[in-house]
Design brief:
Layout: H1 2-27, H2 66-87, H3 99-104, H4 106-109, H5 121-140
Helix pairs in contact: 2-5
Length: about 140
């Protein structure tokens, strides 16, 4: 008779665990407010103060896929950094650029005739990161 009760007991324990799980998840609501007593379950990252010159996310109507929009964002980052280096200025130049300029610069960064993959986004990110690092270095001097 004990052989028949073992599956029922384990089923009862499983039901108890499943029914308790949602209430535990609801008890730990993540927050974006940085504080010393923020629970580890909160993985929100607080924005830095320097975000005012960060290239924003492109509008959804700029391109049909996120891949293309991310590429255009990287191109705009490159254009802004190149202008900062050329003009030797350390002020934010973002307000001098538009998304249309990123679209117009596509032929310069195009690596393929495929309209859905006209460039390599990771390469554009690397180029933008390197140029932005040069700007930071030049402005630190």
């Amino acid at each position: 008779m004990t052989r028949r009760l073992a599956p029922i007991r384990s089923l009862g324990r499983a039901a108890l665990v499943v029914s308790a799980t949602p209430s535990v998840a609801l008890a730990q609501t993540p927050t974006t407010q940085p504080s010393g007593d923020t629970p580890f379950s909160s993985m929100a990252i607080a924005r830095e103060a320097e975000d005012n010159c960060r290239i924003p996310k492109p509008p959804a109507d700029l391109a049909e896929t996120a891949y293309l929009r991310n590429g255009y964002r990287a191109i705009l980052r490159i254009l802004v950094a190149e202008e900062a280096l050329a003009s030797e200025t350390c002020t934010c130049l973002l307000d001098q650029f538009t998304w249309d300029q990123a679209l117009d610069a596509l032929p310069r960064f195009q690596t393929s005739d495929n309209p859905r993959l006209p460039f390599k986004v990771l390469d554009l990110y690397a180029q933008a990161d390197a140029l932005e690092a040069q700007v930071v270095e030049a402005c630190a001097e």
